[in-house]
Specification:
Elements lengths: L1 E5 L2 E5 L5 H7 L23 E5 L5 E5 L10 E3 L3 H17 L4 H9 L20 H10 L30 H5 L6 E5 L2 E6 L2 E9 L6 E4 H11 L10 H4 L1
Parallel strand pairs: 1-5
Antiparallel strand pairs: 1-2, 3-4, 3-5, 6-7, 7-8, 8-9
Bound molecules: FE2/S2 (inorganic) cluster (FES).
Length: 240
Amino acid sequence: MVKITIDGREFEAKEKAKVRDVAKDHNIYIPTLCAHESVSPAGTCRLCLVETTNKEGRNKVMPSCLSVVEEGLAVLTNSEKVISERKVAMQKLLARAPESVSLKALAKKLGVESTPFPVEGHHNCVLCGLCTRVCQEVVGVNAISKINRSTEPNAVPYAVNFDGCIACGSCAYICPMDAITLMDAGDTRTITWPYQKKEFKLAKCKVCGRYWLPEKQIEYMAKKSGRPMEFFDTCLDCRR
Ligand code: FES
Protein backbone atom coordinates (compact mmCIF):
# COMPACT_ATOMS: atom_id res chain seq x y z
CA MET A 1 0.00 0.00 0.00
CA VAL A 2 1.08 3.61 -0.52
CA LYS A 3 -0.09 6.82 1.10
CA ILE A 4 -1.35 9.65 -1.09
CA THR A 5 -3.39 12.78 -0.53
CA ILE A 6 -6.33 13.88 -2.62
CA ASP A 7 -7.41 17.47 -2.11
CA GLY A 8 -5.54 17.45 1.19
CA ARG A 9 -7.12 14.29 2.57
CA GLU A 10 -4.87 11.30 3.18
CA PHE A 11 -5.72 7.88 1.76
CA GLU A 12 -4.08 4.50 1.50
CA ALA A 13 -4.06 3.04 -1.98
CA LYS A 14 -2.97 -0.23 -3.52
CA GLU A 15 0.31 -0.03 -5.40
CA LYS A 16 -0.18 0.58 -9.11
CA ALA A 17 -3.77 1.78 -8.53
CA LYS A 18 -4.96 4.60 -10.76
CA VAL A 19 -5.65 7.95 -9.09
CA ARG A 20 -9.11 8.06 -10.58
CA ASP A 21 -10.04 4.67 -9.08
CA VAL A 22 -8.81 5.69 -5.64
CA ALA A 23 -10.82 8.91 -5.84
CA LYS A 24 -13.89 7.00 -6.97
CA ASP A 25 -13.55 4.53 -4.10
CA HIS A 26 -13.69 7.49 -1.71
CA ASN A 27 -16.59 9.23 -3.46
CA ILE A 28 -14.44 12.07 -4.76
CA TYR A 29 -15.96 13.29 -8.00
CA ILE A 30 -13.75 13.49 -11.08
CA PRO A 31 -15.59 13.86 -14.39
CA THR A 32 -14.94 11.11 -16.95
CA LEU A 33 -16.22 10.21 -20.35
CA CYS A 34 -13.86 7.72 -21.97
CA ALA A 35 -13.43 5.46 -18.92
CA HIS A 36 -15.35 2.27 -18.15
CA GLU A 37 -14.58 -0.43 -15.60
CA SER A 38 -14.79 -3.17 -18.26
CA VAL A 39 -11.95 -1.87 -20.42
CA SER A 40 -8.45 -0.47 -20.03
CA PRO A 41 -8.12 3.31 -19.68
CA ALA A 42 -7.06 5.29 -22.73
CA GLY A 43 -6.92 8.90 -21.58
CA THR A 44 -8.63 10.24 -24.68
CA CYS A 45 -11.27 12.64 -23.35
CA ARG A 46 -9.00 14.41 -20.83
CA LEU A 47 -11.94 15.36 -18.62
CA CYS A 48 -10.51 13.44 -15.69
CA LEU A 49 -7.42 15.66 -15.48
CA VAL A 50 -5.85 16.16 -12.05
CA GLU A 51 -2.78 17.99 -10.87
CA THR A 52 -0.20 15.80 -9.17
CA THR A 53 2.96 16.61 -7.25
CA ASN A 54 5.30 13.79 -6.31
CA LYS A 55 7.68 13.55 -3.35
CA GLU A 56 10.46 15.19 -5.37
CA GLY A 57 8.18 18.14 -6.15
CA ARG A 58 7.59 17.22 -9.79
CA ASN A 59 4.30 18.73 -10.79
CA LYS A 60 2.10 17.85 -13.74
CA VAL A 61 -1.46 17.81 -14.99
CA MET A 62 -2.55 14.50 -16.44
CA PRO A 63 -5.58 12.23 -16.83
CA SER A 64 -6.30 10.55 -13.50
CA CYS A 65 -7.46 7.41 -15.31
CA LEU A 66 -3.84 6.88 -16.40
CA SER A 67 -2.04 8.38 -13.40
CA VAL A 68 -0.56 5.69 -11.14
CA VAL A 69 -0.32 6.31 -7.39
CA GLU A 70 3.05 6.48 -5.64
CA GLU A 71 4.10 7.06 -2.06
CA GLY A 72 3.64 10.69 -1.07
CA LEU A 73 1.77 11.74 -4.22
CA ALA A 74 -0.37 14.85 -3.69
CA VAL A 75 -3.37 15.08 -5.98
CA LEU A 76 -5.57 18.09 -6.63
CA THR A 77 -8.81 17.45 -8.47
CA ASN A 78 -9.95 21.03 -8.81
CA SER A 79 -6.91 23.31 -8.88
CA GLU A 80 -6.88 26.38 -11.13
CA LYS A 81 -4.70 24.55 -13.67
CA VAL A 82 -7.04 21.57 -13.67
CA ILE A 83 -10.17 23.64 -14.07
CA SER A 84 -8.65 25.62 -16.93
CA GLU A 85 -7.27 22.59 -18.84
CA ARG A 86 -10.41 20.56 -18.23
CA LYS A 87 -12.45 23.41 -19.66
CA VAL A 88 -10.39 23.38 -22.87
CA ALA A 89 -10.76 19.58 -23.07
CA MET A 90 -14.52 19.95 -22.78
CA GLN A 91 -14.59 22.70 -25.41
CA LYS A 92 -12.74 20.38 -27.81
CA LEU A 93 -15.26 17.61 -27.14
CA LEU A 94 -18.12 20.04 -27.73
CA ALA A 95 -16.61 20.95 -31.10
CA ARG A 96 -16.79 17.26 -31.98
CA ALA A 97 -20.38 16.77 -30.89
CA PRO A 98 -22.06 20.14 -30.47
CA GLU A 99 -25.59 18.71 -30.59
CA SER A 100 -25.14 15.96 -28.03
CA VAL A 101 -27.62 16.43 -25.20
CA SER A 102 -25.63 14.33 -22.73
CA LEU A 103 -22.37 16.11 -23.54
CA LYS A 104 -23.98 19.52 -23.21
CA ALA A 105 -25.33 18.52 -19.81
CA LEU A 106 -21.86 17.43 -18.63
CA ALA A 107 -20.33 20.61 -20.08
CA LYS A 108 -22.81 22.71 -18.15
CA LYS A 109 -21.88 20.89 -14.98
CA LEU A 110 -18.27 21.88 -15.65
CA GLY A 111 -19.23 25.50 -16.38
CA VAL A 112 -18.79 25.24 -20.15
CA GLU A 113 -21.64 26.55 -22.29
CA SER A 114 -20.03 26.85 -25.73
CA THR A 115 -16.85 26.16 -27.68
CA PRO A 116 -14.40 28.53 -29.39
CA PHE A 117 -13.11 25.66 -31.56
CA PRO A 118 -14.44 25.07 -35.09
CA VAL A 119 -17.13 22.40 -35.24
CA GLU A 120 -15.54 19.19 -36.52
CA GLY A 121 -18.15 16.51 -36.17
CA HIS A 122 -21.60 15.98 -37.60
CA HIS A 123 -22.51 13.08 -35.40
CA ASN A 124 -22.33 12.44 -31.67
CA CYS A 125 -19.01 10.58 -31.70
CA VAL A 126 -16.22 12.25 -29.70
CA LEU A 127 -13.65 9.52 -30.49
CA CYS A 128 -13.48 8.30 -26.92
CA GLY A 129 -12.57 4.85 -28.24
CA LEU A 130 -14.73 2.89 -25.79
CA CYS A 131 -16.34 1.00 -28.69
CA THR A 132 -13.01 -0.12 -30.12
CA ARG A 133 -11.73 -1.16 -26.70
CA VAL A 134 -14.81 -3.16 -25.69
CA CYS A 135 -14.88 -4.91 -29.07
CA GLN A 136 -11.23 -5.82 -28.78
CA GLU A 137 -10.73 -6.41 -25.05
CA VAL A 138 -14.08 -7.83 -23.91
CA VAL A 139 -15.75 -9.35 -26.96
CA GLY A 140 -12.47 -10.29 -28.61
CA VAL A 141 -13.51 -9.81 -32.24
CA ASN A 142 -11.79 -6.51 -32.99
CA ALA A 143 -14.39 -5.46 -35.55
CA ILE A 144 -14.08 -1.71 -35.00
CA SER A 145 -10.97 -0.15 -36.41
CA LYS A 146 -8.66 2.34 -34.80
CA ILE A 147 -9.97 5.83 -34.52
CA ASN A 148 -9.76 8.19 -37.48
CA ARG A 149 -9.04 11.67 -36.13
CA SER A 150 -9.56 13.42 -39.46
CA THR A 151 -11.35 16.74 -39.11
CA GLU A 152 -12.72 16.55 -42.67
CA PRO A 153 -16.47 17.08 -42.69
CA ASN A 154 -18.35 13.77 -42.61
CA ALA A 155 -15.16 11.75 -42.05
CA VAL A 156 -16.07 8.30 -40.72
CA PRO A 157 -14.68 8.30 -37.14
CA TYR A 158 -13.89 4.58 -37.25
CA ALA A 159 -14.61 1.80 -39.70
CA VAL A 160 -16.56 -1.31 -38.83
CA ASN A 161 -15.51 -4.64 -40.29
CA PHE A 162 -18.96 -6.01 -41.06
CA ASP A 163 -17.64 -9.52 -41.70
CA GLY A 164 -16.00 -9.64 -38.29
CA CYS A 165 -18.82 -7.95 -36.35
CA ILE A 166 -21.01 -10.47 -34.48
CA ALA A 167 -23.77 -7.91 -33.76
CA CYS A 168 -23.51 -8.38 -30.00
CA GLY A 169 -24.21 -4.67 -29.46
CA SER A 170 -21.48 -4.14 -26.86
CA CYS A 171 -20.33 -1.01 -28.70
CA ALA A 172 -23.83 0.48 -28.55
CA TYR A 173 -24.15 -0.44 -24.89
CA ILE A 174 -20.87 1.17 -23.87
CA CYS A 175 -21.05 4.30 -26.06
CA PRO A 176 -21.55 7.23 -23.65
CA MET A 177 -22.70 9.52 -26.46
CA ASP A 178 -25.50 7.48 -28.06
CA ALA A 179 -23.48 7.72 -31.27
CA ILE A 180 -24.03 4.00 -31.81
CA THR A 181 -27.56 2.67 -31.66
CA LEU A 182 -29.10 -0.77 -31.77
CA MET A 183 -32.65 -1.74 -32.66
CA ASP A 184 -34.26 -5.17 -32.73
CA ALA A 185 -37.41 -5.55 -34.83
CA GLY A 186 -38.79 -8.97 -35.78
CA ASP A 187 -35.95 -11.15 -36.99
CA THR A 188 -33.57 -8.25 -37.59
CA ARG A 189 -31.07 -6.35 -35.46
CA THR A 190 -29.98 -3.03 -36.91
CA ILE A 191 -26.84 -1.38 -35.59
CA THR A 192 -26.08 2.17 -36.65
CA TRP A 193 -22.61 3.69 -36.32
CA PRO A 194 -21.76 7.19 -37.57
CA TYR A 195 -22.23 7.00 -41.38
CA GLN A 196 -22.47 3.21 -41.25
CA LYS A 197 -25.37 0.86 -40.73
CA LYS A 198 -25.85 -2.90 -40.91
CA GLU A 199 -28.71 -5.33 -40.47
CA PHE A 200 -28.09 -8.71 -38.83
CA LYS A 201 -30.36 -11.75 -38.70
CA LEU A 202 -31.63 -12.82 -35.28
CA ALA A 203 -32.11 -16.48 -34.34
CA LYS A 204 -35.41 -17.75 -32.95
CA CYS A 205 -35.75 -19.70 -29.71
CA LYS A 206 -37.14 -23.11 -30.63
CA VAL A 207 -39.28 -23.22 -27.46
CA CYS A 208 -40.92 -19.78 -27.10
CA GLY A 209 -40.37 -18.54 -30.65
CA ARG A 210 -38.79 -15.27 -29.52
CA TYR A 211 -35.95 -13.82 -31.56
CA TRP A 212 -33.18 -13.66 -29.02
CA LEU A 213 -29.61 -13.53 -30.33
CA PRO A 214 -27.91 -12.61 -33.59
CA GLU A 215 -27.02 -15.68 -35.65
CA LYS A 216 -23.45 -14.43 -35.97
CA GLN A 217 -23.13 -14.12 -32.21
CA ILE A 218 -24.35 -17.69 -31.77
CA GLU A 219 -21.80 -18.93 -34.32
CA TYR A 220 -19.08 -17.07 -32.43
CA MET A 221 -20.17 -18.39 -29.03
CA ALA A 222 -20.38 -21.96 -30.34
CA LYS A 223 -16.89 -21.70 -31.79
CA LYS A 224 -15.44 -20.12 -28.64
CA SER A 225 -17.11 -22.50 -26.19
CA GLY A 226 -16.78 -25.65 -28.29
CA ARG A 227 -20.49 -26.30 -27.80
CA PRO A 228 -22.68 -27.45 -30.71
CA MET A 229 -24.85 -24.85 -32.45
CA GLU A 230 -27.95 -26.70 -31.19
CA PHE A 231 -27.04 -25.74 -27.63
CA PHE A 232 -28.01 -22.18 -28.53
CA ASP A 233 -31.38 -23.13 -30.05
CA THR A 234 -33.11 -22.28 -26.79
CA CYS A 235 -33.16 -18.86 -25.14
CA LEU A 236 -31.99 -18.42 -21.54
CA ASP A 237 -35.55 -17.97 -20.18
CA CYS A 238 -36.71 -21.25 -21.67
CA ARG A 239 -33.64 -23.06 -20.39
CA ARG A 240 -34.38 -22.33 -16.73
S1 FES B 1 -11.72 9.42 -18.38
FE1 FES B 1 -9.61 9.82 -18.21
S2 FES B 1 -9.14 10.78 -20.07
FE2 FES B 1 -11.22 10.23 -20.32
